[in-house]
Write a structure and sequence with these properties.
heterodimer; A: about 120 residues; seven-stranded mixed β-sheet; four-stranded antiparallel β-sheet; 11 strands; B: about 110 residues; mainly beta; six-stranded mixed β-sheet; three-stranded antiparallel β-sheet; 9 strands; globular
Chain lengths: ~120, ~110
């Protein structure tokens, strides 16, 4: 059974750095063509992809947020960590982590965490 | 950057057929994924590689993709299908989500 779960602060202040952890089970990030990504959703708005890290360490970022994001993995702990610097109230959102199996144009996000709501106060 | 456009909302009667469109420049050359998101829940993948259904997804759900429009079709829509639906593609190794469509069953 594949599960993912996000953890981190529920509230951060403007200009601070947000660190979120995705803990997963039921699959390995050592497996070829497997990746774990982060997607966020502001209240009442659409999904927005943030970042993705693959089994081989390849990192991909949203062009719009690249300068503020870092994604890392700890394969031994089955965790993926996302850091976002210099947060702003517009970063208030539910943050999801999700598994991707596939490379190139193949493979969507087939398993998702429950999401964690992060509120940024000014 | 690549953009995907969906209608904001779609209302239809029970057991009608819902056709949710996703517009993008030459999207027919890309592989499309569709997600269903019910209120307060995480998204669920309902179509992958444009036309395939994951196990557990009812046959009522189908996908097509051609030209500048991809379509998610739900035949015989049920109350339980009320949700937001998002399309997604990969563009230059970045995931791009559509604007989302809210489906209401009357």
């Amino acid at each position: 059974q594949i599960t993912l779960k996000e953890s981190g602060p529920t509230r951060v202040k403007s200009t601070q750095t947000l660190t979120l952890t995705c803990s997963f089970s039921g699959f390995s990030l050592n497996t070829r063509e497997v990746g774990v990504g982060w997607i966020r959703q502001p209240p009442g708005k659409a999904l927005e992809w943030l970042a993705l890290i693959y089994w081989d360490g390849d990192e991909r970022y949203s062009p719009a947020l690249r300068s503020r994001l870092t994604i890392t993995k700890d394969t031994s702990k089955n965790q993926v960590v996302l850091t976002m610097t210099n947060v702003d109230p517009v970063d208030t959102a539910t943050y999801y982590c999700a598994r991707r199996e596939g490379y190139g144009d193949f493979g969507g996000f087939d398993y998702w965490g429950q999401g964690t709501l992060v509120t940024v106060s000014s | 950057s690549y953009e995907l456009t969906q209608p904001l909302s779609l209302s239809l009667a029970l057991r009608q057929t819902a056709r949710i469109t996703c517009g993008g420049n030459n999207i027919g050359s890309k592989t499309v994924f569709w997600y269903q998101q019910k209120p307060g829940q995480a998204p669920v993948l309902v179509i992958y590689r444009s036309t395939y259904r994951p196990s557990g997804i009812p046959q009522r759900f189908s996908g097509s993709n051609s030209g500048n429009t991809a379509t998610l079709t739900i035949r015989g829509v049920q109350v339980g299908d009320e949700a937001d639906y998002y399309c997604q593609v990969w563009d230059s190794s970045s995931a791009v989500f559509g604007t989302g469509t809210k489906v209401t069953v009357l």
